[in-house]
Design brief:
globular; alpha/beta; six-stranded antiparallel beta sheet; 7 helices; Elongation Factor Tu (Ef-tu), domain 3
């Protein structure tokens, strides 16, 4: 199901970062969402992209999103930055792969750059329910800190700690210190931002003794896979029909399935969101996603056909 929305506000909230307010084009309230949710946005002339909803989940009159203009953009962020107030867009219903845990006694939110967007809605939700939390917001410089006016005027401003790389050394983000101070069995960590930043934060948390079930992350784009393994051809067998399809070295499993009438829900097509996650009944996937955890990858019972491939000659899919 999709929604038609209108851009009612467009604002530059940091260097190369625009915020947009989207309201239902028919004037009705928008479907509710929970903290950490995202929507697919179809900008005119640009590819479909996912953006986190960053406003208070108690609001029903708008979805607010923030978009970084990426110099390496393949068209998505550039198309978004060209939007003007009054433009009508098609979006998906909110989905969530990055939910707050109900078991946390304390939450450590860590944002890198534009990764602040889902954590803003999380901070709003945690404050509303009276939960203990801290929000660490990291950027290369103060000009890159988005939504500062909103943060400074927020109800949870006392929970926010800012860190900029070009500032005084005492305020720079030190993950080891943060996690050593916060570590207890009921503390959960939520991190969003560039892939390298996420890996650094999660590595420091694990070194401080955090178990994987306490660590939550959301990537905005898949990392470029540094591998010597070539994209070899392989086959996929559809379990329900026995049909065998060949996936060429220059094709994705998702595109081959689509050509043969097998419809799998998709969104990012980069292995980030998990929308196309498909159960594997036999064979060994070559995982190239950023969605599954190491443990989930090791199970080899699911894969993302948008980007992942196969170690084995044949993958049997539960389709």
């Amino acid at each position: 199901m999709s929604l038609t929305v209108t851009v009612t506000n467009r604002q530059l909230v940091a260097e190369d970062v625009c915020a947009f307010d989207l309201v239902n084009a028919d004037g009705n309230p928008l479907p509710s969402f929970i903290a950490g949710s995202h929507i697919d946005v179809h900008p005119p002339g640009g590819p479909v992209r996912e953006y986190s909803i960053c406003n208070d989940p108690n609001e029903t009159h708008r979805y607010s999103i923030g978009v970084l203009k990426d110099p390496a953009s393949r068209g998505g962020s550039i198309a978004m930055h060209e939007l003007r107030e009054g433009t009508t867009l098609t979006i998906s219903l909110p989905r969530n792969h990055f939910q707050l845990s109900k078991d946390a006694h304390h939450s450590v939110l860590v944002a890198g750059g534009i990764g602040i967007t889902p954590l803003l809605s999380m901070a709003e939700s945690l404050y509303t329910t009276g939960e203990s939390f801290e929000l660490h917001y990291c950027a290369r410089s103060s000009s890159k800190l988005a939504f500062m006016e909103r943060l400074k005027g927020s109800r949870f401003v006392s929970n926010v700690i800012l860190h900029v790389d070009d500032g005084d050394a005492t305020q720079r983000f030190n993950a080891t210190s943060v996690f050593s101070a916060a570590n207890n069995p009921a503390t959960h960590v939520y991190v969003c931002g560039p892939g390298g930043f996420i890996d650094y934060v999660l590595g420091a948390a694990r070194a401080a003794g955090y178990r994987d079930e306490l660590l939550h992350r959301e990537y905005f784009a898949a990392a470029i896979e540094d591998t010597d393994e070539e994209d070899r051809a392989f086959q996929i067998r559809i379990a329900s029909s026995g049909e065998v399809l060949s996936v060429g070295a220059d094709e994705t499993a998702l595109s081959v399935l689509a050509k043969h009438g097998v419809d799998i829900p998709t969104s990012c097509e980069q292995g980030v969101c998990g929308t196309c996650l498909t159960r594997v009944l036999d064979g060994t996937p070559l995982h190239r996603d950023m969605f599954l955890t190491d443990e989930e990858r090791a199970a080899n019972d699911r894969f993302t056909p948008c980007c992942s491939r196969s170690h084995s000659p044949v993958l049997v899919l539960d389709l």
